[in-house]
Design brief:
Layout: H1 4-34, H2 59-75, E1 81-85, H3 92-109, H4 116-130, E2 134-139, E3 146-151, E4 156-160, E5 166-173, H5 177-184, H6 190-198, E6 206-212, H7 213-216, E7 225-231, E8 236-243, E9 248-249, E10 254-255, E11 262-263, H8 265-292, E12 296-298, E13 329-331, H9 338-355, H10 371-411, E14 429-433, H11 436-462, H12 472-482, H13 493-537
Helix pairs in contact: 2-4, 5-6, 8-9, 10-11, 11-12
């Protein structure tokens, strides 16, 4: 039996799910128009049902698909994240360790069996359609690797704390008795054990709940959260564990005050256009069919049966010998305005295209431009792409990487804490990402370096002393960091200064040796001249 704490958790979860019930209708409408594969918020689909049989055109679905696919293709290519520290610039040794830790985390995230690609693929399309997704980040049941899973938004409810951060998550779950046995062993209820013998695939209503530990009061745990698995059907607590992370990564695109749930600015704006384009397409299809195969009007007393318009078909008619068939049959046509209808549909498609930010996903071509023109084009692209990439990078990829990093650190994947450079001890790690937006920012730094070099070259012709006003080495390092050059490719500033000092010493030594050689040559020339003079005098 459950104690009072677990019963209160279930009661709180029922309250969250009941308040969310009206939102499911909106999500169902959005899914019907943009994401028919996910349109089971208020209805129950059977295997084999056709998803999009109610649609006249697939353009809204394609727009959502393109936006959802762009998150992965543009924001998670190659090694798409980097580690940094907040507040200060890391030294060279710290940069090398951070890049090594990045490689360790990347291999752990993309190892076989983590299901990261599958989870983020589902999460990307939930994010583009509904403005949020729910992905769990945890160790697998063998505790030898990471496991990522994307959960249906219908089955997840959450609440915010006083700071506006999500700290309570309730998830409905219907595993089979066999799955419960694999996950919890002998901790399952006796009723589930009975199902293992008679009906091993019997589904059991369960819940996974993550709450702040201060609300659950589980002993003297120092962990900020508590994870509780409850068998609701049998009123049985299967597991309660203190955890350091919230387990669920729930990125939110655009929020409104007074609600813990977000919205997708793409689908909210495009929903009226999606309905309109379906209606327009239906009318155009009907008009086109009538234009190609118009309805006929005929004399009822002449024709015995319906017209047979198939190739080689015969329609029997009762005609007199001198009667013209064209007088008893004719086409019933109306003036069709197909071009006007096509123009309206094209305008609606353009609106949907803009609503899904598809016009801002391509970096403009900048070949043949001056450095100033490049910088202006990059600034324009950043302004257009920032509303799309910024929430995904910070709320989605950032939180996913933070939770993974903390989980790997707790598991000892980065080795001993004493191996971490001293400059990183006690520092907060933050993530930066490789994306078209970051590439544009890097190109902006490179463009500024080019502009600086051009202005310096012009000013040097007037006053050569301006070289002292520009720290070209610092500008060069910033431009190289912006272009994504690995830290291993660059020497630390101390090493570079030491090399410059050695070069200066070598040049100074070479100059001194040259002066000595010149002095010795001079003495030799004087001695030779004196010898020649003596010989001439003799």
């Amino acid at each position: 039996m459950m104690d009072s704490r677990a019963q209160q958790l279930i009661k709180n979860g029922d309250h969250l799910f009941s308040k969310k019930s009206s939102l499911l209708s909106l999500w169902q409408e959005i899914a019907d128009n943009f994401y028919p594969e996910r349109a089971d918020f208020t209805i129950c689909r059977s295997l084999g049902n056709e998803f999009a049989d109610h649609l006249m055109t697939s353009y809204p679905v394609l727009a959502r698909r393109d936006l959802g696919d762009s998150f992965g293709s543009m924001l998670r290519r190659d090694k798409w994240f980097n580690l940094n520290i907040q507040g200060s610039e890391p030294d060279h040794q710290a940069k090398v360790w951070l890049q090594w830790a990045r490689d360790v985390q990347y291999r752990a995230m993309y190892a076989r069996g983590t299901q990261l690609v599958r989870a983020t693929k589902e999460g990307d399309h939930d994010f583009s359609a509904f403005g949020q997704c729910a992905i769990s980040v945890e160790l697998n049941r063998h505790a030898n690797g990471l496991l990522y899973r994307c959960w249906h938004l219908r089955d997840v409810a959450w609440a915010e704390n006083a700071d506006g951060e999500i700290d309570t998550i309730h998830r409905k779950w219907k595993p089979t008795a066999t799955q419960l046995k694999q996950l919890f062993g002998n901790k399952i209820s006796q009723q589930v054990k009975n199902h293992l013998e008679k009906d091993p695939y019997k589904e059991v209503n369960c819940r996974h709940i993550v709450v702040p530990s201060e609300q659950y009061e589980m002993g003297k745990s120092r962990a900020p959260y508590t994870s509780v698995y409850i068998d609701v059907d049998n009123q049985h607590v299967m597991e309660e564990t203190p955890v350091m992370n919230r387990i669920y990564c729930i990125p939110r695109w655009q929020t409104v005050s007074g609600s813990q749930y977000a919205y997708s600015p793409a689908t909210i704006v495009a929903l009226p256009d999606a309905r309109l384009i379906q209606s327009i397409t239906r009318v155009l299809l009907e008009a086109g069919e009538k234009a190609v195969d118009p309805p006929l009007v005929a004399n009822k007393s002449v024709f015995r049966d319906d017209f047979n318009l198939m190739a080689g078909g015969i329609t029997w008619a009762d005609l007199e010998a001198d009667q013209d068939i064209r007088k008893v049959i004719g086409e019933f046509t109306k003036s069709t305005q197909l071009p006007a209808g096509m123009n309206i549909r094209n305008d609606v498609q353009a609106m949907i295209h803009q609503a899904f930010y598809l016009n801002t996903l391509t970096l403009p071509q900048m070949s043949g431009m001056t450095a100033y023109e490049v910088s202006q084009r990059v600034q324009e692209y950043i302004r257009q792409a920032l509303p799309l990439f910024s929430p995904v990078e910070q709320e989605y990829n950032g939180e996913l990487c933070d939770m993974t990093f903390n989980l790997l650190m707790q598991s000892g994947a980065f080795g001993s804490r004493y191996d971490i450079p001293e400059s990183l001890q006690g520092q907060d790690v933050q993530f930066s990402f490789e994306s078209p937006l970051q590439s544009a920012i890097g190109q902006e730094k490179q463009g500024k370096l080019q502009v600086t070099a051009e202005m310096l070259g012009i000013a040097r012709n007037i006053d050569p002393s301006v070289d002292a006003d520009v720290d070209i080495r610092t500008a060069f390092r910033d431009a190289m960091d912006g272009s994504g050059v690995p830290a291993k490719w660059l020497r630390s500033e101390d090493d570079a200064n030491q090399i410059l000092q050695q070069q200066a010493q070598q040049q100074q030594g070479a100059a001194e040796m040259q002066q000595v050689a010149q002095g010795a040559q001079t003495l030799q020339n004087v001695a030779d001249a004196a010898q020649s003079f003596r010989e001439a005098a003799a």
